[in-house]
Amino acid sequence: MNLSRLNKQLRLSNFECYEIENGALWLHQHFISAALAAAYLDVLIRDTRWVQPVIRMGGRQIPSPRLAAWHGDADAIYTYSGFKNTPAAWTPALGEIRDVLQSATGIRFNSVLLNFYRNGEDSMGWHRDNEPELGQNPVIASISFGETRRFRMQHVKRKQLHWATDLESGSALVMAGQTQQYWRHCLPKSKSRNLSRVNLTFRQIH
Ligand SMILES: O=C(O)CCC(=O)C(=O)O
């Protein structure tokens, strides 16, 4: 889908558009109601087979500071942090959330990465979602459940350019266009926000 069609579709679905250099961002803080998001948080924590992936950092292998899982269509194989991930099947909850997201965005997603931040000590370091199987200008849709956490972005060439928001429970953030080429993002640790949070990033693996 081209960007202007995606923009129209997301505005119709009550997303707010943020103008950033070399990228495209839309946010809907109340995409899923607070009550439903709280119910999904419990189901996602309980019914997911969480693993703690090992990540490579400065030549060392260390356990990632969060738990993760990968679900999707059988052929949506994704290499992430140097590891090949074969997806587990869609669960009823993940299928429901995907369907709501697909009707709001008009985009078909064939996979989802789940991240479980158990408390404020868990985090995600600076990175770009720019693996080759995502294609050149991927649409990544991120939905959050549970604790509000700060999400930060930085332009990789013009490092003084920043963008940040607090992602609330039930929020949906869509990154598209050249965002993954020009912007890196992270979810820093937090001293004050210690409750559990699950984030789902829906993707299209080619
Ligand atoms: O938890 C978040 O909001 C960020 C997740 C993320 O950066 C990713 O899945 O690539």
Give the terminus-to-terminus CA distance.
14 Å
Mean pLDDT: 95
Weakly predicted, low-confidence segments: none
Order of SSEs? HEEHEEEEEHEEEEEEHEE
**Number of helical segments?**
4
Q: Helix- and strand-based class?
A: alpha+beta
Helicity, in percent? 10-25%
Total domain modules = 1
Beta-sheet strand percentage? 35-45%
Instruction: Assign the CATH topology.
Output: Jelly Rolls
Strand elements, count: 15
Radius of gyration: 16 Å
Q: List ligands, each type once.
A: 2-oxoglutaric acid
CATH architecture: Sandwich
Please give the order of strands in the largest beta sheet.
Answer: 1-2-13-10-15-8-5
Question: Mind describing the biggest β-sheet?
Answer: 7 strands, antiparallel
Furnish the topology, listing elements before pairings.
Blueprint (H helix, E strand, L loop, with lengths): L2 H10 L3 E5 L2 E6 L5 H14 L6 E4 L2 E4 L3 E6 L5 E3 L2 E3 L6 H14 L5 E7 L6 E4 L12 E7 L2 E7 L6 E6 L4 E5 L2 H4 E5 L9 E7 L3
Antiparallel strand pairs: 1-2, 2-13, 3-4, 5-8, 6-7, 8-15, 9-14, 10-13, 10-15, 11-12, 11-14
The chain binds 2-oxoglutaric acid (AKG).
